[in-house]
Amino acid sequence: MRTIAGDKPISMIKVSVYRPDFTLIDHAFTDDDGSYGVDVPAGETVTVRFDTHHSLNNADRWQPSLVTEVIADDAVPLDRHLVPVGQFADTARGIDVIAANLLASAVEGPEYAAHATTRLSQIKQNTLFLQRIQASLLEHFTEQADA
Asked: What is the C-alpha separation between 98 and 103, in angstroms, rounded?
């Protein structure tokens, strides 16, 4: 796990691994050098979400990231660059952030929602379509946080 600018390691990022039905298989947190390890049954197709955790002091610092359709084997290295909150996201990164937030909307509870609204309100999308999806997600998480 690394920063986009400067390629520096990011610690305490939650790495969650899900089955296709979004049941959680395992999760871990990155260490000081940005490394992590999770146990996944070999041959299983999984989705991996990289995100902050609502209870940590970095909860509002990084946008989430998502990798889908990963086939687990003995060692599948996934190194990601995260977008800091408030920075411009090019189209590919903007889609990645939106996808990760869509998954979070399906698996996370109200304690996550307040941080999601903070982060979503500060990402700078560069297409009208992504801005519309971002607005819908922002509305969803705002309602969830207020509930």
From this structure: 9
**Cα angle, residue 79 at apex, residues 45 and 31 outer, rounded to 5°:** 105
Q: Angle at Cα 88 formed by Cα 85 and Cα 89, nearest 5°?
A: 95
Place of tokens 């903070």: 118
Measured CA to CA, the distance from residue 135 to residue 131 in angstroms comes to 6
Q: Which residues, 6 or more positions from 42, have their beta carbon under 8 angstroms from its beta carbon?
A: 72, 73, 74
Contacts of 136 (CB under 8 A, 6+ apart): none
* 3-state DSSP helix/strand/coil % of the chain, to nearest 5: 30, 25, 45
Long-range contacts of 59-62 (CB under 8 A, 24+ apart): 59/115, 60/85, 60/115, 60/118, 60/119, 61/85, 62/10, 62/13, 62/119
If phi > 0 it is left, if psi is from -120 to 50 it is alpha, else beta; for residue 124 that is beta
Q: Are 94 and 123 in contact (CB under 8 A)?
A: yes
**Tokens (6 digits) for 6:** 């400067």
Residue 25 pLDDT level (bands cut at 50, 70, 90) = very high
Query: What pLDDT does residue 23 have?
Result: 95
The structure's pTM equals: 0.91
